[in-house]
Write a structure and sequence with these properties.
The complex is a heterodimer of chains A (113) and B (305).
Chain A lengths: L2 E6 L6 E6 L1 H10 L2 E6 L5 E6 L5 E6 L8 E3 L5 H13 L4 H12 L3 E3 L1
Antiparallel strand pairs in A: 1-2, 3-4, 4-5, 6-7
Chain B lengths: L1 H8 L3 H4 L1 H7 L1 H24 L10 H12 L3 E2 L2 E2 L14 H10 L4 H6 L2 H4 L2 H12 L2 H14 L7 E4 L4 H13 L5 E5 L2 H14 L2 E4 L8 E7 L8 H11 E9 L6 H8 L8 H10 L4 E6 L3 E6 L1
Parallel strand pairs in B: 3-4, 3-6, 4-5, 6-7
Antiparallel strand pairs in B: 1-2, 7-9, 8-9
Classes of the chains: A alpha+beta (113), B alpha/beta (305).
Chain lengths: 113, 305
């Protein structure tokens, strides 16, 4: 069973929460703190530092790199192109985007070097 | 008369998804959506008939498409009726859905009429299209709104049956909307999907199960979302859910009122259509009692006890 720790997104200020697993607490107890990556509801990537009691000690925005090494192929249907383009330009905004990019690669819609 | 019946049959939608209903334009917009779907079905059948004989549909997909067109009165026997595009545009929110119909069905109509489905849409592409479909803004908004409207997260620990990867994400959003604790597990029978689900489970702190036999706990509510189209034995879903949960929320696209959307799900590997009467019959057989029915078609939404 996991606990949830609340934080404010350092980019947009949205209220968000992250699951604090027993594994994370164990890591924090061993090392003094544990780090976990999360996304706020608006899709901003954040790096959180959590202490052994499950409290969030710091929140840092993560600059995501665009994927200039990837391109959309002719196989990609028109309905997917706009969304894939946005994902490649801005990075995966959500988990659903990340899954779509994975499946798109498997289907040959996107090729990455 | 038909319009009044539609509104009455789906009256509960006003109770559970009033904001979503208002944002797309209320019941008239749902009716407009249905008219656009019939127009797209007309275009698909017209294109398919240029590549096959109506009397002898060569593939199971073609046969299913013709049967659906007859049920929707787009086809009379083998005579294609004239269907004009509606004068009003479809709601903006649904644009990606109609683009997908063009890409997946209409642009491949001839191939779908003549070749096995797997040759026209390989498995990897079907998986990518499925992900594109379920994670689209409109689908995700509908799923989140239904859970928030029915108040599923407030009913206790939930089991999302045949969850896929999108349902847990939409469920988490519904918990945020209701500002309530998210306590749920997700069950998948497909090993490939389970691997993705496992990653999400680690991130969001829910339990992921692979196969019914691996579930070793009971739940306050089970949630079956569009699983009956994909299940090899739909009655089994109700019977197994009965053993694991006190309540059952079913949201299921049904054949009544459904148009070309069903063909899209078949192209993405759904197995069979179901009707809302069949859903209630199967639930009753498994010992479930209908507590509240919110909508009958094209999406059946009800809670059983």
């Amino acid at each position: 069973m996991s606990l949830a720790a609340r934080y404010k997104c350092p980019v947009c200020g949205a209220d968000a929460s992250v699951a604090v697993t027993p594994e994370l607490l164990r890591q924090a107890a061993e090392r003094g703190a544990a780090r976990v990556a999360a996304r706020c509801p608006r899709g901003h990537a954040v790096l959180l530092t959590i202490d052994q009691y499950g409290y969030i000690r710091s929140t840092l925005p993560v600059q995501e790199a665009a994927r200039p090494d990837c391109e959309i192929t002719d196989k990609a249907p028109l309905a997917a192109r706009q969304r894939l383009q946005a994902i490649l330009e801005k990075g995966n905004a959500t988990d659903a985007d990340a899954l779509l990019l994975e499946k798109a690669k498997a289907a040959g819609w996107v090729i990455c070097l | 008369m038909e319009r009044i019946k539609y509104v009455l049959d789906n009256w509960g939608l006003r109770k559970i998804v009033p904001h979503l209903l208002r944002s797309v334009g209320g019941f008239p917009a749902l009716r407009l959506f249905s008219l656009w779907e019939d127009y797209y079905l007309h275009v698909l059948i017209k294109s398919m008939l240029q590549c096959m004989e109506c009397e002898k549909p060569p593939t199971s997909f073609a046969k299913m498409a013709l049967e659906l067109a007859r049920r929707r009165r787009v086809l009379d026997g083998c005579r294609l009726k004239a269907v004009q595009p509606p004068k009003r545009p479809y709601p903006q929110l649904l644009e990606s859905y109609f683009h997908m119909l063009e890409d997946v069905l209409i642009n491949r109509a001839c191939d779908l009429a003549a070749k096995p489905l797997e040759d026209v849409i390989p498995d990897e592409e079907a998986a990518a299209l499925y992900q594109l479909f379920v994670s689209s803004d409109w689908y995700s908004a509908v799923r989140t709104a239904i859970h928030a409207g029915v108040g599923t997260p407030k009913r206790g620990r939930a089991l999302l049956i045949g969850a896929g990867t999108q349902e847990p994400l939409d469920y988490v959003k519904a918990c945020q909307v209701l500002n309530t604790r998210c306590d749920f597990a997700a069950l998948e029978v497909d090993e490939k999907i389970y691997r993705d689900l496992e990653r999400l489970a680690a991130k969001y702190g829910f339990t992921a199960y692979l196969g019914w036999d691996s579930v070793k706990e009971t739940f306050d509510i089970a949630v079956a979302t569009n699983v009956l189209n994909w299940a090899t034995d739909p009655s089994d879903v109700f019977a197994k859910a009965r053993r694991l949960a006190k309540e059952l929320l079913v949201t299921q696209g049904v054949v009544e009122g459904m148009s070309i959307l069903f063909l899209l799900t078949v192209a993405l590997r759904a197995q069979r259509p179901v009707s809302w009467r069949e859903v209630e019959g199967l639930a009753r057989q498994a010992g479930w009692r209908l507590e509240e029915r919110y909508a009958k078609y094209p999406v059946y939404i009800a809670v059983f006890r």
